[in-house]
């Protein structure tokens, strides 16, 4: 995670793109990339979406968009001074408390 953060930061610095990497712009870019990911899946049936990676072309596009999302999320967290891994692990721990296995297993109900 730290290596990715460093490499994305260096990529931006080498191009003097830090000036464009405001939290607002990065959040918007992230949203755009999530939209591109969703666009790859939006007209598929649930069954087609579940097997999308078995088609090499579709799989490559999904993988590329996942990569874009990860890059912008990583960069946004870096600019905001957020430890992305720590933030995710904290949220996962919160969710584990909110959705105890014995109450939540097999249920999609929101709490
Ligand atoms: Mg993209």
From TrEMBL:
Limits of the NTP pyrophosphohydrolase MazG-like domain: 22-90
UniProt record, GO biological process: nucleoside triphosphate catabolic process
Gene Ontology MF term list: nucleoside triphosphate diphosphatase activity
Annotated PANTHER family: DCTP PYROPHOSPHATASE 1 (PTHR46523:SF1)
Protein name: NTP pyrophosphatase, house-cleaning of non-canonical NTPs
Species of provenance: Micromonospora krabiensis
